[in-house]
């Protein structure tokens, strides 16, 4: 599985909030694993907050589709 395939799988948007800005790939099981099930596409803010437990003082602002719709 390539990183390009992961971007395509998630339609070039964050799997958590839906933004198309500042996207990154997160390895759910760690960098050694490159299985399709292990890769998820997230924005920088979601990556840091949800997967690394960081509290960002000034998170990168982005459109949060789920909050907007909910």
**Percent in helix:** 25-40%
Largest sheet, if any? 2 strands, antiparallel
What does the average pLDDT come to?
76
* Inertia-based shape: flat
- What structural category arises from helix and sheet content? alpha+beta
Name the helix and strand elements from N-terminus to C-terminus, one letter apiece: HEEHH
Number of β-strand runs: 2
Structure notes:
It is built from 3 helices and 2 strands. It has a two-stranded antiparallel sheet with strand order 1-2. Helix content is 29%, strand content 14%.
Quick recap:
The protein is of the alpha+beta class and 70 residues long.
Q: What labels describe this entry?
A:
3 helices; 29% helix; disordered C terminus; 70 residues; two-stranded antiparallel ribbon; alpha+beta
Record the SSE blueprint.
Elements: H1 3-9, E1 23-27, E2 39-43, H2 44-51, H3 65-69
Antiparallel strand pairs: 1-2
